[in-house]
C-alpha cells in the first residue's frame, strides 16, 4: 500500500501551503486573472448556442424539410457548426475568440444561402435564414469586439 502521508505533516485537504510555495504562483495568478478577463462576453455564449440549436432544428419547426431538403440539411449542418463554436467559446475562450469573425462569416452565408442552396424558397424560409444570419453576424461581432478589446488590454 502506498504511503499517502504528507512530508510536512499537513493534512490531506490542506493544499494551501503547497500552492503558495509553488515557484510559478505569480504567473498562475496572472493567467487566472487573464482568463477571468476573457469572460466579458460570457453572456453571448448561451445565445450563440441557442441560435445554433434553433438553426439546426428550424427546418422541422417551419416544416420545410420536404419542400427544401437541401436547405434543411444545410441549416442542420450550419446549426451544428454554430453550436460547436459556442461550445468552443465557452470551453476555451482564450483560443476561440479569434474565430469570432468566422461566426460573422457564417451569419453572412446564412443570409444568402436560401437563394444559393434552396430551390425557390418561400418567404418564411427566407425570413428565417435572414434572422438567423443577422443574429449570427451581430453575436459574432460582439464576440470579436470583446476579443479585440481583450487583446489590446493584454498588449499594454
Helix-strand blueprint:
Layout: H1 16-20, H2 25-37, H3 42-61, H4 69-91, H5 93-96, H6 100-116, H7 123-155
Helix pairs in contact: 3-4, 3-7, 4-6, 6-7
Tally of helical runs: 7
| Weakly predicted, low-confidence segments | none
Order of helices and strands: HHHHHHH
Alpha-carbon distance between the termini?
A: 53 Å
Tell me, rounded to a whole number, the average pLDDT.
83
Biggest sheet record: none
Number of strands: 0
Give the DSSP E fraction (strand runs of 2 or more residues): under 5%
Principal-axes geometry comes out as: elongated
- Computed CA radius of gyration, to the nearest angstrom: 23 Å
- Overall helicity: over 70%
Class derived from helix and strand content: mainly alpha
General description of the model:
- The protein is mainly α.
- It is built from seven helices and no strands.
- The chain has helices spanning 16-20, 25-37, 42-61, 69-91, 93-96, 100-116, 123-155.
- The longest helix has 33 residues, at 123-155.
- The radius of gyration is 23 Å and the shape is elongated.
Question: Keyphrases for this structure?
Answer:
mainly alpha; 74% helix; elongated; 156 residues; 7 helices; single chain
Short description:
The protein has 156 residues and is an all-alpha fold. It contains 7 helices and no strands.
Amino acid at each position: 500500500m502506498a504511503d499517502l502521508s504528507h512530508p510536512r505533516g499537513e493534512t490531506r485537504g490542506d493544499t494551501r501551503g503547497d500552492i503558495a510555495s509553488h515557484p510559478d504562483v505569480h504567473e498562475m495568478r496572472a493567467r487566472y486573472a487573464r482568463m477571468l478577463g476573457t469572460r466579458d462576453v460570457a453572456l453571448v455564449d448561451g445565445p450563440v448556442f441557442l441560435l445554433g440549436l434553433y438553426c439546426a432544428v428550424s427546418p422541422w419547426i417551419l416544416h420545410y424539410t420536404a419542400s427544401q431538403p437541401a436547405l434543411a440539411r444545410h441549416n442542420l449542418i450550419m446549426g451544428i457548426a454554430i453550436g460547436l463554436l459556442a461550445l468552443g467559446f465557452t470551453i476555451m475562450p482564450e483560443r476561440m475568440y479569434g474565430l469570432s469573425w468566422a461566426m460573422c462569416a457564417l451569419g453572412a452565408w446564412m443570409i444568402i444561402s436560401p437563394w444559393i442552396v434552396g430551390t425557390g424558397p418561400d418567404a418564411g424560409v427566407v425570413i428565417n435564414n435572414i434572422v438567423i444570419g443577422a443574429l449570427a453576424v451581430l453575436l459574432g461581432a460582439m464576440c470579436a469586439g470583446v476579443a479585440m478589446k481583450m487583446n489590446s488590454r493584454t498588449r499594454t
